[in-house]
Structure to design on (408 residues):
């Protein structure tokens, strides 16, 4: 058996420097056409001498963890069958490891380049985090915020260390409370911005492009986005009018134009129009795309499904569970549709990158059983896995990737 093995240096050159990760390695190979039981990756620091072995099961990719920065590593892949037989090695590929931090829009409480499964429990204000770095075997929790105070969870990377901070916005007094990863979650800061009495919705995002989340709210009555910038130490503010609550617009900030900054975006359910005001034009220009519709009960689920570093325009239709994705890499000209999840079961969409291939996976959380069902992008959406985490009985709020959170 022969493999075509590819070592991809995941430098997406459209990304700005603070998100670039030229040394982040992803090993991919073609699936075997034979009846196999899984794959092993073997590697070492000397060509032809493979001192480490990792069993990756039936996955056809692997992202190296815990390599020593500056060292050159040599990788091969082989398959094994149910009776213990192994194939010959693939050809060898090599690359130098780096410890550059990876920045992501996803929820990543550890160092791994893969998203975590996170629920926030309003009753006790605890964040329950199951880590992607442990293949969802390990977990921890942090207390932050309170459901009794109507806190809205607003996680993101506020301190710019590429690790998610726990944060809530409190409508009653408009306070943002952020517990920072950079302090090991020992320290926090608070800042006032927005007001629940004015109907504000928190829309945290990195609008100024400094790699840190800005404090931002969208005011439905006026349609104005009010942003307090992290690059100014939250001293500078700016406002942009975009969208209108009278049209039931849903604010969906994310980076659609690929400049590394959040764009101001609303989806208007009645007509299914997406209105994107671009950060690359200093919020002067916009484009619009028709996709989905409230008449079908569609839920907006923007995320980067095609892995080009820009948000794709996507909706999930609860009635038949179909995800309709219009890809940014095609200039929003092409689309694909995949069935996953069901409104009948009360599924909540949680798209994020759970398999670590830098593309959002199709994922739903089923409240009754607390199950996360993930259909993986790395398998072309053919394979899936499921993890139990959280519970609808406790009123848990599942969360997925920060800037491109799905909206219920
Ligand atoms: Ca910022
Ligand atoms: Ca942008
Ligand atoms: Ca994309
Ligand atoms: Ca993925």
């Amino acid at each position: 058996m022969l493999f075509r093995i590819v070592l991809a240096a995941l430098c997406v050159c459209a990304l700005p420097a603070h998100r670039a990760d030229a040394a982040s390695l992803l090993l991919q190979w073609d699936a075997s056409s034979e009846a196999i039981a899984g794959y092993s990756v073997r590697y070492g620091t000397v060509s032809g001498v493979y001192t480490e072995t990792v069993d990756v099961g039936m996955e056809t990719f692997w992202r190296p963890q815990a390599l020593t920065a500056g060292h050159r590593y040599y990788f091969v892949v082989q398959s094994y069958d149910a009776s213990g037989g192994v194939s010959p090695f693939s050809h060898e590929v090599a690359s130098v490891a780096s410890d550059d931090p990876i920045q992501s829009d996803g929820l990543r409480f550890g160092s791994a380049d893969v998203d975590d499964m996170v629920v926030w429990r309003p009753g006790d204000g605890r964040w329950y985090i199951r880590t992607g770095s442990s293949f969802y075997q390990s977990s921890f929790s942090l207390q932050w915020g309170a459901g009794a105070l109507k806190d809205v969870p607003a996680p993101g990377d506020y301190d710019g260390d590429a690790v998610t901070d726990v944060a809530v916005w409190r409508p009653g007094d408009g306070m943002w409370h952020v517990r920072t990863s950079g302090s090991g979650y020992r320290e926090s800061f608070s800042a006032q911005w927005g007001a629940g009495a004015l109907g504000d919705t928190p829309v945290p995002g990195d609008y100024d492009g400094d790699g840190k989340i800005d404090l931002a709210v969208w005011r439905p009555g006026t349609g104005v986005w009010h942003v307090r910038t992290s690059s100014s130490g939250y001293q500078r503010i700016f406002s942009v009018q975009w969208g209108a609550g009278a049209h039931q617009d849903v604010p969906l900030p994310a980076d659609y134009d690929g400049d590394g900054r959040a764009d101001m975006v609303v989806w208007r359910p009645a007509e299914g129009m997406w209105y994107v005001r671009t950060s690359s034009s200093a919020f002067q220009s916009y484009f619009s795309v028709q996709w989905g519709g409230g008449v079908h009960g569609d839920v907006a689920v923007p995320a980067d499904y095609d892995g080009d570093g820009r948000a794709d325009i996507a909706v999930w239709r609860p009635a038949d569970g179909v995800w309709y994705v219009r890809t940014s890499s095609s200039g929003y000209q092409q689309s694909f549709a995949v069935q996953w999840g069901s409104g009948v079961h009360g599924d909540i969409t949680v798209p994020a990158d759970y398999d670590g291939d830098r593309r959002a996976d199709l994922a739903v959380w089923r409240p009754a059983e607390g199950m996360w069902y993930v259909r993986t992008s790395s398998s072309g959406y053919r394979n899936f896995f499921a993890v139990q985490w959280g519970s609808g009985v406790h009123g848990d709020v599942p969360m997925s990737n920060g800037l491109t959170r799905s909206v219920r």
The pocket of calcium ion (ligand 3) is lined by residues 304, 306, 308, 310, 312, 328-329 (CB under 6 Å). The mean pLDDT is 88.
